[in-house]
User: What shape does this take?
Amino acid sequence: MHCKKRAYRDKDEAVRVLRGLKRKLDGKKKPVRAYLCDDCGKWHLTSKEIGEMPKTGFKLTQDWSKLIN
Assistant: This one.
């Protein structure tokens, strides 16, 4: 399955991009963590904090041990 988010091939690449964005996006909504996607198996960045999900009834199946802050 393909996700609509930008995908990174591994954790190191996602974290490297995350750190670079934290320095560049002052005042704008920016990613705060990287996570391994259950759907596509690649890494994505998100601006949502852990546990912050829209009230859609969607159940989280993510293995939280894979998250990087």
Summary: Strands lie at 33-36, 43-46.
